[in-house]
């Protein structure tokens, strides 16, 4: 029950995962043709999504290379796209163990700092 009170630690963990995501990229098979910056990619192709580049993109994050846990306060995330932070993937294929992993990280770090 005390884990839920570690709010700032949760912000720090999220910021660390933004800078150093647990998975470097995701792969998805396209269901339909997609055009990205003038390049057509036909359906059926498998694409790689580089999470680390998304998480450090200056068009998505201010000061993307700096460690700023406060960027994950709910007031700072209200205008962010839900896919701008995807350390555990997103959508219907996200990691089913992400809440367990986050709580496990909180417990471990809290015990180390104790």
Automatic annotation (TrEMBL):
Its cofactor is heme. PROSITE patterns: CYTOCHROME_P450. SUPFAM superfamilies: Cytochrome P450 (SSF48264). GO terms for molecular function: heme binding; iron ion binding; monooxygenase activity; oxidoreductase activity, acting on paired donors, with incorporation or reduction of molecular oxygen. It holds the Pfam family p450. Keywords: Heme, Iron, Metal-binding, Monooxygenase, Oxidoreductase. The keyword Nucleotide-binding does not apply. InterPro entries: Cyt_P450 (IPR001128), Cyt_P450_CS (IPR017972), Cyt_P450_E_grp-IV (IPR002403), Cyt_P450_sf (IPR036396), Cytochrome_P450_Monoox (IPR050196). Heme binds at residue 95. Belongs to the cytochrome P450 family. PANTHER family: CYTOCHROME P450 FAMILY 4 (PTHR24291), CYTOCHROME P450, FAMILY 4, SUBFAMILY B, POLYPEPTIDE 7 (PTHR24291:SF201). This is Cytochrome P450 4F6. It comes from Biomphalaria pfeifferi.
């Amino acid at each position: 029950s005390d884990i839920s009170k570690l709010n700032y630690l949760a912000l720090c963990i999220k910021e660390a995962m933004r800078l150093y995501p647990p998975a470097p990229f995701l792969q998805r098979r396209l269901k339909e043709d997609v055009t990205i910056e003038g390049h057509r990619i036909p359906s059926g192709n498998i694409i790689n999504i580089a999470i680390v580049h998304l998480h450090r993109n200056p068009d998505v994050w201010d000061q993307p290379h700096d460690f700023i846990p406060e960027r994950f306060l709910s007031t700072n995330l209200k205008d962010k796209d839900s896919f701008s932070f995807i350390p555990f993937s997103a959508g219907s294929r996200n990691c089913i163990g992400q809440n367990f992993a986050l709580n496990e990280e909180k417990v471990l770090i809290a015990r180390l700092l104790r």
